Amino acid sequence: MKIIVDAMGGDFAPKAQVEGATMAAQEFGIEVVLVGRRAQIMEELEEELGYHKALPQGISIVEASEVVTMEDDPARVIREKKDSSLVVGLNLLKDGGGDGFVSAGNTGALLTGATLIPKRIRGIRRAALSPVIPNREGGALLIDCGANAECTPEYLMQFAYMGSYYVRRVLGRENPRVGLLSNGTEESKGTALQQETYKLLQSAHGAGKLNFIGNIEGRDVLLGGADVVVADGFTGNVLLKGIEGTAMFIMGEIRSAFRQNAVTKLKGLLVKKNLRGLKNKMDVSEVGGTALLGITKPVIKAHGNADARTIRSAIRQAGALAKSGIIEDITANIDTISIKQTDGE
Amino acid sequence: MKIIVDAMGGDFAPKAQVEGATMAAQEFGIEVVLVGRRAQIMEELEEELGYHKALPQGISIVEASEVVTMEDDPARVIREKKDSSLVVGLNLLKDGGGDGFVSAGNTGALLTGATLIPKRIRGIRRAALSPVIPNREGGALLIDCGANAECTPEYLMQFAYMGSYYVRRVLGRENPRVGLLSNGTEESKGTALQQETYKLLQSAHGAGKLNFIGNIEGRDVLLGGADVVVADGFTGNVLLKGIEGTAMFIMGEIRSAFRQNAVTKLKGLLVKKNLRGLKNKMDVSEVGGTALLGITKPVIKAHGNADARTIRSAIRQAGALAKSGIIEDITANIDTISIKQTDGE
Fold first, then answer.
1. Global confidence as pTM
2. Which of B217, B222, B223 to mutate to test the interface with A (most CBs of A within 10 A)?
3. pLDDT, tens digit, for every residue of A263-283?
4. Which of A83, A260, B61, B131 has an alpha carbon within 20 to 30 A of A50's alpha carbon?
């Protein structure tokens, strides 16, 4: 297994990327190709990690002189920064120089680059970002969470299939329950987009192709009930960030409750270990990142503020995605996933 | 101040309604008209609260023989259950028999009833549900959170004005910051709805009529930055329920962390008092309910599972809304709030 890492993208690049890569190579035996400015990568390896002569086992470097910033316009950067770590890395992925790709850089540029370079799977209308949201049942896949603000019913139906394959192949759950994110459980709820999508998913369910359980409300994404939550990228993004914000708000309130005075500080120390499980559960650094589904090769978007541990997990996740067979699933079933097929039934 | 309460709507009706009404009458000196089945209301007063001969001070009863259930179709119920506590209560409100109305019953029926009986303020296109979301800055008003799944830019612009008046008049904040809920802060983010609304709000800001601060992401609704968060009812509902679900999930995880064994239970007891502040902050029972803005009279929707304390707070909130002058604000500025006026600038 060989994973390509954009060493220059992200708030803590290249430090977090270089450290995370060496962790993944050591812990999981994954080969990692670091793409970026060789001098900067070497500096991290030498000064921070103490590798002076040879590269760490399993690590190689591919030079890319340019860096994509968070401010770069996604549409232009792919054409104009051809020697960026992002573009060089995606070309390497396309040409078979690795089994998957991880970047913590500019999300829009990664989406555009993945669509233009390794490209979408033939027949897939849009690629979708699909993070696993922590919940009472071990997590639900939210697809899409921001790649496509405007969606059609067909896009959402394709997201349902791709999410379903992911949950089965990567999370190992048989017959994943697919819920459509809406403002109520009744079929009549939602906008025209949800109402049309409901019909498509119901028909796929009737044909035994998808385990559609109906609409799911924002609350039940967290409390459980569905393994895959299908949303347009606008709504999915608002929900994802609302969940993140609520968790940050509550964790902050807990911290400040224990910071009041000497007694509360002591109490805080006493329960710290007990609350760690909660912190871990809400923590993305164990998951790694968000899969971009619908591309011909495994692509993982790690959070912009990813640390070394998160990059390590994202590399493991890219490896799991590559091994899972989900891209083969999508490719083999593309006729089922197309709107004409489902309509015809 | 006299507030009309739908005594029969809600999971714990009429018990919670009757108890909440007596609490509000005692604590705040608000007169409360309980609308519903007199016999059932009297039974609560006699058996639960020990009032045998006379009604509690400030409490009166208006008979209504029918009850709207959660399953009733909103469009039909207003025509067909004319002697329901909801319809009788709203007619009483319209005819000046009270200064505001509180119901914990069927939300759709309340929305339809409020629109058909006391009616919308002339020129307001849609009424909107607007709860206060707890956050780091003492809360933000989310408008709309479910009354209107499909919206136009004009609806959203009107929500921005109504929310702004509410925050100023009821929450007492001068020059409320209005944010448009989107999937990114840049003007280009969102769907066509958000992009068009952005222009309207920017123009209103330029004319000095509204303090529009641009797009706001789901995360910052919780972390702070805006006093009013403008959304279509579909997205607002998903966000609101996502926040509720996340809070319930985290609180549940904290509880179970302290339930592991005798030692953790002891620790839990020790920190219970310290975490109570957090629980209260996330608790809606102190706020009461959600204002339905855009109607000619103050209407408060309390949560279906409202207990007596929540009903008490909702009655206080209806009183505050009636005193605030916000309906007068909307009426006086209706030309400003109409789309032609803003377009013409």
1. 0.93
2. B222
3. 888 888 888 888 877 777 776
4. A83
